[in-house]
Amino acid sequence: ETGVTQTPRHLVMGMTNKKSLKCEQHLGHNAMYWYKQSAKKPLELMFVYSLEERVENNSVPSRFSPECPNSSHLFLHLHTLQPEDSALYLCASSQGFQDRSGNTIYFGEGSWLTVV
Amino acid sequence: AQKVTQAQTEISVVEKEDVTLDCVYETRDTTYYLFWYKQPPSGELVFLIRRNSFDEQNEISGRYSWNFQKSTSSFNFTITASQVVDSAVYFCALSEDKAAGNKLTFGGGTRVLVKP
Predict the structure, then answer these.
(1) Distance (Å, rounded) from C-alpha B91 to C-alpha B85?
(2) Chain A residues touching residue B29 (CB < 8 angstroms)
């Protein structure tokens, strides 16, 4: 059983829809991440939150909007997406972000998103 | 900037054969961390190992072993006596010891197919 859970596991949405991906970590970590994995590119870091503050926004289009209400939960709000946004979205968490110690990042099972 | 290269895109073996996955990295940092993750068809990235740049000791964990060669900037991974359950995509990743902390740069992944 993974310490990072993501819902939904599969999502199909139209280009005009608004949906959200949810992530919850049960590991007591204080940093959370969104990664994107598409068929044509390597795993890409999208956002990083440390202690509920966004510390990294990797040039992600505004149609992706993250939210981190507390250190255990992370959302990715989606609106007016494009078909090329279809991908696997992976949430992850880690401990000790502030001490720069290269702590291990643990991933969830991902949410498979298809934009039609 | 950091970079991770996994030259093998796909490897196919018959069960019980050994398989070695290559990983070559580039970084300007003297302190960095290397990781291997396994991604089965379900999508989750499963953490396998973390190694810091000051520890060149090779490691063995069951059928898995890792060979870290700092002189050649390589961190290769060997599966001994492969099993069908080892079929997955394997990613090598690098994290640098910078203020931003814990950001992983992934290689393109190597798909391993173990045939019965």
Answers:
(1) 16
(2) none
Interchain pair A43, B50: CB under 8 A = no
Top residue of A49, A91, A107 to mutate, by most chain B CBs within 10 Å, is A107
B45 reaches A (C-beta below 8 A): yes
**Per-residue model confidence as pLDDT tens digits over A73-114:** 999 999 999 999 999 999 999 886 555 556 788 999 999 999
In residues, how long is chain A?
A: 116
Residues of B in contact with A55 (CB under 8 A): 100
Q: Which of B37, B44, B91 sits opposite A108 (nearest CB)?
A: B44
* Mean pLDDT taken over chain A: 89
In three-state form (DSSP H/G/I as H, E/B as E, the rest C), the secondary structure along B57-101 is CCEEECCEEEEEEHHHCEEEEEECCCCHHHCEEEEEEEEECCCCC
Percent helix, strand and coil across chain B, each rounded to 5? Answer: 5, 55, 40
Q: What is the pLDDT of residues B84-103, one digit of tens each?
A: 999 999 999 998 766 445 67
Does the beta-carbon distance from B43 to A88 stay under 8 Å?
yes
Is it the case that residue A50 has pLDDT exceeding 80?
A: yes
CA dist list (Å): B19 to A81, B78, B114: 40, 6, 9
